[in-house]
Amino acid sequence: MPISGEKLQNRARDTVLALPGVSHGRPFTEQLDVYKVAGKVFLIVTDDPDERIVTLKTEPEYGRLLQHEHPSITRAYQPNLRYPALGGVATPGWSALVAMLSDRPITLAIDGPAALDWSAAVKLLNSALEARGLAASATDLRAHLAPWPRILEPQGPPSSPTTRLRPVRRRHPCRPLRRAACAGT
Fold first, then answer.
1. Positions in the chain short of pLDDT 70
2. How far apart are CA 99 and CA 23, in angstroms?
3. Which of 10, 35, 64, 75 shows the smallest number of beta carbons within 10 Å?
4. What is the pLDDT of residue 36?
5. Structural domain count, the chain
């Protein structure tokens, strides 16, 4: 017999508070009741009466089993998702990457999440390059991209069956950098 969201939340709170070494607080926002053991978050209870959510950290295999047995259980958003390194060992920082770079002029493109502190990442990368005796210049490509609404603008009348997304062409921002790099500047 399924239990209500509020009952499930109360049962989750009572159960974890009975465990040894559990602490709880509201470090993110007043609406999130966060439970930790050994300083690591393992349970979050949402206090929004319209969205009664319990987020419990589990081993992936156990989580999939629970999802299969209980359709109301869904996989939660993972803010710090990590995948295992393929074909080697993951090393923190930029030194390992910089050590693999050629001494010839190159263009190194780095992609990542918008939430990353890109100024700090570029500063650390430049420090690693300088330590190896390589000079670099950085270009933030966001300034050279078309805004998403413009990319989605239809071409032709809206009722036309031939309406397609129109490609938006812009000058490639790295082209002058390549020429400068090849010229040895």
1. 1-3, 77-86, 155-185
2. 43
3. 75
4. 93
5. 3
Cα angle 169-175-176, degrees, rounded to a multiple of 5: 125
CATH number at 41 reads 3.90.1150.30
Residue 25's pLDDT is 93
CB 171 within 8 A of CB 144: yes
State the Cα–Cα distance between residues 96 and 106, nearest whole angstrom.
17
d(CA 94, CA 19): 41
| pLDDT for 1 | 59
**Could you give the CA distance from residue 43 to residue 8 in angstroms, rounded to a whole number?**
13
Pairing of strands 22-25, 32-37: antiparallel
Which DSSP string do the residues of 74-139 spell out, in sequence order?
-PPP-TT---PPSSS---SSSHHHHHHS-SS---------TTS-HHHHHHHHHHHHHHTT------
Three-state secondary-structure class, residue 54:
strand
Full-model pTM:
0.42
Residue 34 φ then ψ, to 5°: -105, 130
Average pLDDT, the chain: 77
Give which of 31, 59, 58, 57 is closest to 45, Cα–Cα. Answer: 31
**Tokens read off for 98:** 């910089």
Quote the tokens at residue 107. Answer: 């263009």
Same domain, 22 and 58: yes
